[in-house]
């Protein structure tokens, strides 16, 4: 029995409606309309390489056209400097997610872990007050800074994460800093080959935050 023109049009319309109904939630999931603000230092500022080679630029590519990444990383930045700049950055960019990847310069300059902790806590509180979810990324210090100081430094990130409940990437350069072939000649900064690895490390912490609530836990 033939459908007729009207019947075929009705059938096609029903199929289209069902397709949109099923695909609608999936199309809106993930990085849609996410605005990610990166607060960092030279490890995030594509130091000594083209900007497009850095992990932050690569993150923008991964999020796709519906997401936006603002790289507010500055070489030499400390937690105090970023804390001072944060209110203006939040007001200007209105991010939905803030990635804080700082602390290395605090440690290298001998700034007290207590001051670093207070700055990180203040940035997390300010970001959340602005409605943003927060991802915290830790960094490591060179071995010549001594075991005791290095452990106090690392403990700051754990303490801040435990106190605030933010997601923590224990070490931004995980799988990179231990491999000389992935580091620049200064032994401090990662090279271009390391950037995809850093991106994957960041993505492992960031992906659960996409379209989650401001407290950092996945939305229901």
Can you characterise this structure?
This is Arylesterase. Pfam families: Lipase_GDSL_2. It comes from Spiribacter roseus. Residues 38-194 form the SGNH hydrolase-type esterase domain. The chain starts with a helix and ends in a 14-residue tail after the last helix. Helix 2 crosses helix 7 (195-206), helix 3 (79-93) runs parallel beside helix 5 and helix 5 runs parallel beside helix 6. The longest helix has 24 residues, at 4-27. It is globular. A five-stranded parallel sheet has the order 2-1-3-4-5, sandwiched between helices. Strand 1 (35-40), helix 2 (55-63) and strand 2 (68-71) form a beta-alpha-beta unit. With 220 residues, it is α/β, with parallel strands linked by helices. The chain has seven helices and five strands. Helix content is 45%, strand content 10%.
Structural key phrases:
alpha/beta, five-stranded parallel β-sheet, 5 strands, disordered C terminus, SGNH_hydro
Distance between the termini: 47 Å
Annotation field: number of helices: 7
Classify the oligomer. single chain
Q: Which segments are poorly predicted (pLDDT under 50) over 5 or more consecutive residues?
A: 12-30, 216-220
Beta content:
5-15%
How many individual β-strands?
5
SSE sequence, one letter per element? HEHEHEHHEHEH
Q: Reading side by side through the largest sheet, how are the strands ordered? A: 2-1-3-4-5
Backbone CA Rg: 21 Å
Class from secondary-structure proportions:
alpha/beta
């Amino acid at each position: 029995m033939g459908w007729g023109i009207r019947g075929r049009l009705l059938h096609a319309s029903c199929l289209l409606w069902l397709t949109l109904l099923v695909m609608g939630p999936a199309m809106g999931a993930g990085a849609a309309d996410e605005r990610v603000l990166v607060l960092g230092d030279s490890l995030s500022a594509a130091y000594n390489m083209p900007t497009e080679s850095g992990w932050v630029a690569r993150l923008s590519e991964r999020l796709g056209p519906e997401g936006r990444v603002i790289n507010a990383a500055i070489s030499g930045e400390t937690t105090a400097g970023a804390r001072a700049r944060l209110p203006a950055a939040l007001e200007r960019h209105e991010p939905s997610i803030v990635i804080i990847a700082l602390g290395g310069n605090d440690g290298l300059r001998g700034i007290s872990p207590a001051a670093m902790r207070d700055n990180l806590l203040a940035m997390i509180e300010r970001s959340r007050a602005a409605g943003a979810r927060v991802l915290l990324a830790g960094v490591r210090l060179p071995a010549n800074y001594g075991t005791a100081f290095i452990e106090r430094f690392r403990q700051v990130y754990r303490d801040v994460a435990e106190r605030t409940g933010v997601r923590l990437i224990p070490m931004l350069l995980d799988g990179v800093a231990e491999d000389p072939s992935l580091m620049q000649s200064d032994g401090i900064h990662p090279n271009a080959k390391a950037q995809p690895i850093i991106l994957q490390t960041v993505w492992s912490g960031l992906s659960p935050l996409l379209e989650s609530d401001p407290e950092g836990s996945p939305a229901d």
